[in-house]
Write a structure and sequence with these properties.
The protein has 129 residues and is mainly alpha-helical. The protein folds into 2 domains: 61 residues, Arc Repressor Mutant, subunit A (Orthogonal Bundle); 42 residues. The chain is 64% helix and 9% strand. The chain has 6 helices and 2 strands; from the N terminus they run H-H-H-E-E-H-H-H. Strand 1 and strand 2 form a beta hairpin. Strands 1-2 form a two-stranded antiparallel ribbon. InterPro entries: ArsR-like_HTH, BlaI_family, WH-like_DNA-bd_sf, WH_DNA-bd_sf. Pfam families: Penicillinase_R.
Length: 129
């Protein structure tokens, strides 16, 4: 899967949020100063060429929509981050964020509970197969 530039990712976040929209709607959601219509239109076409976005005709214009799920891109991005900066170790990543972001014990316990819940769900799913 190809990586997104910062501008492309910003547009994708809006598309994931709105699900289907035209370029004008994307621009409306972008922070000030608003980029030019042609700039956003070009970014959307690049996203389309990368396989992240598709379109359908509506009147004289187009509605764009994501064809890649946000969760799929997030997983790929997190794995790349872990591999690139933490030698593939999620433990090292969590330890880093815990130290650098002054994570509280209750936040860490909450994360551990989420992991246990996910492990239980995965084990149940596996046993049902």
């Amino acid at each position: 899967m190809k990586q997104l530039t910062k501008a492309e990712e910003e547009v994708m976040q809006i598309l994931w949020q709105l699900q289907k929209c035209n370029v004008a709607a994307i621009i409306k959601e972008l922070p000030e100063p608003k980029p030019a219509y042609n700039t956003v239109s070009t970014i959307v076409r690049i996203l389309e060429s990368k396989g992240f976005v598709d379109h359908e005709q509506e009147g004289k214009g187009y509605l764009y929509f994501p064809i890649l799920k946000k969760s799929d891109y997030s997983n790929q991005s997190i794995n790349k981050l872990v591999d690139g900066y933490f030698q593939g170790s999620f433990k090292s990543m969590v330890s880093f964020f815990m130290k650098k972001n002054d994570m509280s014990l209750s936040e860490l316990e909450s994360i551990m509970n989420d992991i246990k819940t996910a492990e239980s769900a995965a084990a149940n799913k596996k046993s049902k197969k």
